[in-house]
Specification:
It is elongated and about 60 Å long. It contains 2 helices and no strands. Helix 1 packs antiparallel against helix 2. The two termini are 27 Å apart. Helices cover 69% and strands 0% of the residues. It is mostly helical and 77 residues long.
Length: 77
């Protein structure tokens, strides 16, 4: 449910700021969908990294292994 709300917020922001009408509505919609797909992929990737970190932290706390910290990746523009 939170991902849906996030995507709704992002999509509504683009609508509120206005899009140039030189593009056809279909092209504009395709760009929105492509952006949302990319956003969902990045959020999913970050959630997987958090889950991996959580699992590693549990393993470290129980004394069954070292704590491995992986980089979170580079930030986009």
């Amino acid at each position: 449910m939170p991902i849906f709300l996030f995507l709704l917020l992002v999509f509504s922001t683009f609508i509120a700021t206005g899009q140039s009408y030189s593009e056809s509505p279909q092209q504009a919609l395709n760009q929105y969908v492509a952006f949302l797909n990319q956003s969902v992929n990045e959020v999913t990737q970050r959630l997987q990294q958090i889950q991996t970190y959580h699992d590693d932290m549990r393993t470290y706390q129980t004394g069954h292994g070292p704590l491995r910290l992986s980089p979170s990746g580079t930030l986009e523009e």
